[in-house]
Write a structure and sequence with these properties.
Elements lengths: L4 H16 L3 E6 L4 E4 L1 H7 L3 H4 L4 H4 L5 H14 L3 E3 L25 E9 L5 E10 L1 H22 L9 H18 L3 E8 L2 H8 L1 H17 L6 E6 L2 E7 L3 H16 L3 E3 L2 E3 L3 E7 L7 H17 L5 E3 L3
Parallel strand pairs: 11-12
Antiparallel strand pairs: 1-2, 1-5, 3-4, 4-5, 6-8, 6-11, 7-8, 9-10
Helix pairs in contact: 7-11, 8-9
Pfam families: GGDEF, PAS_4
Organism: Marinobacter nitratireducens
Catalytic activity: 2 GTP = 3',3'-c-di-GMP + 2 diphosphate
Amino acid sequence: MAMNENEVNAFHWLADMLESVEVGLVVLDLEFRVQAWNGFMENHSGITASRIRDQILFDVFPDIPEAWLTRKVDAVAMLNTRAFTSWEQRPYLFKFRNTRPITGTEEYMFQNLTISPLSGTTGNVEKVCLMVYDVTDIASSKRALERANEQLAKLSMTDRLTGLKNRGTWENLVDAEYERYRRYGHATSLVMFDIDRFKKVNDTYGHLAGDEVIKHTAGMTLNNLRQSDSAGRYGGEEFGIILPETDAEGAKIICERIREGIEQSVVDTTAGPIQYTISMGIAQLTDVPENHMQWMQQADEALYAAKKSGRNRVMVFDA
């Protein structure tokens, strides 16, 4: 039956709307051959509708997860109901470059996807429609917020000058290591150390130079630690190290390496070159301390003994 003029106009308007809408529309038969491909898809893929028509989608876009999309489409066709997926579950179905000037930091377009069943005259599902929504702005904003929150969390745990863990965070790790020893009994050692005669460094060279010495101490410490070790700035010129799975002798080897490295180095500052030393105290954990604070006190007593013995040395706590 021929369409009248109103029907022709309505069809034309509908076709024009589908071509210009800012949503990707893809119609597939149940063998995944492309039946319709609107202007949004042409613009972002660079593939015209006439070129892709009747081609199998996975042949044209091999990056599309075939098994995943097949499961989705089969469920839509079987249940005759829509299926949805968001960019948080799968960042994109079609790997389109991001063309938004505002969210240019994102390399690819983030997409939400709706899969709708399309029934024929018999009422059976014969095709499916993929609706692809560009949600790059939303995704980019959320990802930026998550990165900012991660950075804030990191800053709240980190000493700003040295990049080491701050006192509160490091003390919590000492407490956790103490509890781990109570449960498993593995050897573990704690180190407290500070910069010898640091007040003289500040008085002679100034506080900015003193900060350079503190940063140098942190860098030398990190360079000589293992991945499992944890270093923190306890306050001022005082530092701490947790050495898991390490007895006092092993801890002393690590500490001597740090001490000798610092003794033999020179810190170049705007106020002039500075040479300095550190003193270190070690306490291997035993069943004697009743809490982590008593363990820290033992390491601090060993540090005091190193100072009293002439500085620039490593001492192990002796009960």
